[in-house]
Specification:
Order of helices and strands: EHHHEEHEEHEHEHHEEE
Mean pLDDT: 98
Shape: globular
Length: 279
């Protein structure tokens, strides 16, 4: 049995959150550079240049990459032989998040869904927990902004609609989203499972590196086909036109009921902020 002190976990998660909100992932930064060299419009090139400049300034100054520091999302893989000493996992994650958002001057966005009264400290976090074998604790954090989350959708297709139905829904969704999710986007697609699982699959897919090719050749080909069709829409960086509407499409698939074909699209903006810590 591995014992992890709550204080050590708190400090690691706090620092991870601050780093994620200040330093753009190298895979995203590299994608901006590549797309800027290939972009067909002057406006598209300029937007990508400004995104690179913004990333450099955030890293230099310690200011947030984007003012919308979003909902704090955690995906946790907790080994069966792990215990948290001196606190609960949920309380420790929330306390670390509260300190990080205070210390980093990160915007607190969580509010009551009807009265719109702010909770004041960005709580509660959204925590997805999976119990796995072993004595390792892996925590992945994502700052999920409202503009991109609002463009996300879930539907229940009929099995007969198949891949063509999936493709039509995803591409139409991104066409309808237009400039709203601050393109260039990263698109997570959850296929299968159940009504509640498909959106979780789609969101978890956004943790994959932009330059990571899916190990299943069939799914890799599906991701490329969707990426090409979304970019053919011509929406471009920040909706000003161009070739770079989407940086990557990431698919996660799960078996489903014989009568169902759940499908979810979770959209991520250009400021893809996520990191992980492992104990």
């Amino acid at each position: 049995m591995k014992s992890i002190k709550a204080g050590e976990l708190h400090a690691a998660v706090r620092d991870m959150i601050l780093d994620a909100n200040r330093v753009l992932g190298k895979d995203v930064y590299n994608a901006f550079e590549t797309c800027m060299a290939q972009e067909s419009t002057d406006s598209g090139k300029e937007v990508l240049r400004q995104l690179l400049e913004n990333a450099d300034l955030a890293a230099e100054t310690g200011l947030a990459l984007c003012q919308d520091t979003g909902v704090a999302i955690f995906f946790v893989e907790m080994g069966e032989d792990v215990r948290i000493e001196g606190g609960t996992l949920k309380d420790t994650l929330n306390a670390a998040m509260v300190e990080a958002y205070d210390k980093g001057y990160l915007r607190k966005s969580m509010c009551h869904p009807l009265t719109r009264k702010n909770t004041g400290d960005n709580t509660p976090s959204v925590i997805h927990t999976e119990i796995v074998a072993g004595d390792t604790l892996k925590i992945r954090y994502m700052a999920k902004g409202g503009g991109s989350e609002n463009m996300s959708r879930c539907t229940m297709l009929t099995p007969a609609q198949g891949w063509q139905g999936i493709k039509d829904f995803v591409v139409k969704r991104m066409a309808e989203a237009g400039p709203n999710p601050c393109p260039p986007t990263i698109v997570g697609v959850g296929i299968g499972g159940t009504f509640d699982l498909a959106p979780t699959l789609a969101k978890e897919a956004l943790f994959r590196r932009i330059d990571e090719v899916h190990p299943d050749p069939e799914i890799a080909a599906m991701e490329k086909e969707l990426l090409d069709e979304i970019n053919a829409l011509g929406i471009g960086p920040m909706g000003l036109g161009g070739k770079t509407t989407c940086l990557a499409v990431k698919i996660a698939m799960h078996p489903c009921h014989i009568a169902s074909l759940p499908l979810a699209v979770n959209v991520q903006c250009h400021s893809s902020r996520h990191k992980e810590v492992v104990f």
